[in-house]
Amino acid sequence: MSLSDTPNPLVVENFIGGSFVKSSKYLDSFDPSTGEVWAQIPDSDPTEVDDAVQHARNAFPMWSKTTAAERAKILIKIADSIEENLDKLAQAESKDQGKPVSLAKRMDIPRAALNFRAFAESICHHLNISNCIPEMGCMNYTVRNPVGVAALISPWNLPLYLLTFKIAPALASGYFILPLPLFIILMLFSNYNYIEIGNCVVCKPSEITSVTAWMLCKLIKDAGLPNGVLNMVFGTGSKAGEALINHQGVNVISFTGSTNVGRHIGQVAAKSIKKVSLELGGKNAGIIFEDADLSKVVPATINSCFLNQGEICLCTSRVFVQRTIFDEFVQRLVKETKNLKVGPPIEDVFMGPLVSQVHLEKVRSYVEIARKDGARILCGESVDELSLPAPYQKGYFIRPTIITDLSDSSACMQEEIFGPVVCLSPFDSEEEVIERVNNVKYGLCSAIWGQKGDRLLRVAHQLHVGTVWINCWLVRSLDMPFGGMKESGIGREGTSHSLELYTEETTICYKFQ
Ligand code: NAP
Ligand code: MG
Q1: Closest ligand 1 atom, CA of 359?
Q2: How far is the CA of 150 from the CAs of 118, 130, 147, 232, in angstroms?
Q3: pLDDT class for 185, splitting at 50, 70, 90?
Q4: Residue 155 falls in which region: left (phi positive, over 0), alpha (psi -120 to 50) or beta
């Protein structure tokens, strides 16, 4: 699997029942740094989706006879194989998405491997609570069985990273832990087979960034995952995605993407009472108090606003700075931002191009709205000074853009832009900034910077978001629950939370004779 010896354009195939299957129709997929077609992906239709779901259902009884240890062994093999193919996967992710190769090597691909490793390890050591009622001669415990077939739908910004964060727990899920005495009793007196079982999955990656998901199918097949346990259908959300979420054979939907599509998926899931997890958009704020160490906070803020071209759901897009240090902060932030290297993602750059022409136009349109709203654009936008070499002149580049002088009600302060654009605003008091940070429809995350521990914690506890970082950003432990509130989503993912999503819990109350 080498990028250099693959046909141009690369032809991606669906992965159904353990086989790579050609489609009757294909869609072009573009290299965002040149605007050229570099891959073609299946434009899967409902028949192909149905085929994938049927294979997942057929594989389910067989997969359900595996033990956690057997599943963990395969998942760890997949993790090893992702690490062995780090360079190739990082190059493909960069070519498909636009992110610097160096970032994909440092963040996306290692994290994809960690997703498999962490969930594999967790199913072997998971703890559960049991409860004993001795006076009634009963012992309670719970069993978690897999839900069945999971539909996993992922976005384009962290393609392999986010898709594997769904695949690994879905395949791993299903466990039960007994209190030791009951375990011994059941082992001795029953012939119950201690099966711990996993789900089968059908994935639909974003049509804009499908290539690394397809490469993953090859690694998964080589790692020995039984046929049909994982299926991948490529294509559009409106056709393949819609067929998948509506399929009667799907029991749980895990979706990461925009709030509008999430709202629709929630409605579809409600009609057929499917379990659903929605990880959606954000309008995340940074809060910088006057006692913050600017030599650390300025570079950290640049990272939180512009990493991965600002195309991370957790990126900061509003920064509230205490008025006493506002001017100094702005001046330092703008100076350092102007020095960021933007250019071809294969080079040593901080930012590559945005993911698509459509997205570039959307991001630019927000800068125009800000201008009409009377804002000052302190730096960014234009790419003229980049002097890009010929193949990159049609790439979807934009410089990191800093805006100020906007009211909180303006679109750029309220709506998700999902690009390298940040709005700065001064604040005076703690109460004021809490109220302003919470005054958006989203609730994904925030980052607070300063030194007074009591103030930092007081503020953190009053923010309506799923994650608050204090003096850091994007430090993600897989063990911690991850997700959003308000229109940023429903449900949490993370080691135990994901395992809960992909299982149903049954309470067993055992009365001794
Ligand atoms: P999107 O347009 O909502 O698409 C996400 C996925 O859903 C894609 O695979 C898409 O397929 C598919 N889809 C679209 N319509 C569908 C339908 N009717 N039925 C089933 N599937 C459908 O989001 P995006 O533009 O790819 O990603 C950016 C958004 O994701 C941002 O809002 C960002 O904040 C959010 N995000 C959230 C998190 C989080 O953890 N909270 C993480 C990353 C990104 P197509 O690509 O073919 O349209
Ligand atoms: Mg692409």
Answers
A1: 25
A2: 19, 27, 8, 12
A3: low
A4: beta
CB atoms within 10 A of CB 415: 16
| Same-domain check for residues 256 and 373 | no
Tokens of 153: 């739908």
Question: Is position 4 within any domain?
Answer: no
The enclosing domain of 423 has a CATH number of 3.40.309.10
In terms of DSSP H, where are the helices of 37-158? 46-63, 68-84, 86-97, 101-103, 109-124
Look at residue 106 and tell me if it is in a domain: yes
pLDDT tens digit string along 304-341? 999 999 999 999 999 999 999 999 999 999 999 999 99
Range of the domain at 199: 10-280+489-511
Residue 483 within a domain: no
Question: Nearest Cα to 407, choosing from 380, 431, 436?
Answer: 436
Element (H, E) at 244: helix 242-246
Q: Is 86 left (phi over 0), alpha (psi -120 to 50) or beta?
A: alpha
Q: Is residue 446 part of a domain?
A: yes
Mutate-to-test residue for ligand 1 from 29, 53, 108, 157, highest number of ligand atoms within 8 A of CB: 157
How far is C-alpha 481 from the chain's CA centre?
Answer: 13
Residues flanking ligand 1, CB < 6 Å: 153-157, 162, 204-208, 236-238, 241-242, 245, 256-258, 261, 264-265, 279-282, 313, 416, 418, 444, 484, 489
Q: Which residues are CB-contacts of 110 (< 8 A; sequence separation ≥ 6)?
A: 83, 86
At 71, which CATH number? Answer: 3.40.605.10
Token pair 């605007």 is at which residue?
35
pTM as predicted: 0.92
Please give the tally of structural domains in the chain: 2
Quick one: which of 54, 58, 196 has its CA closest to 122? 196
* Same domain as 292, residue 175: no
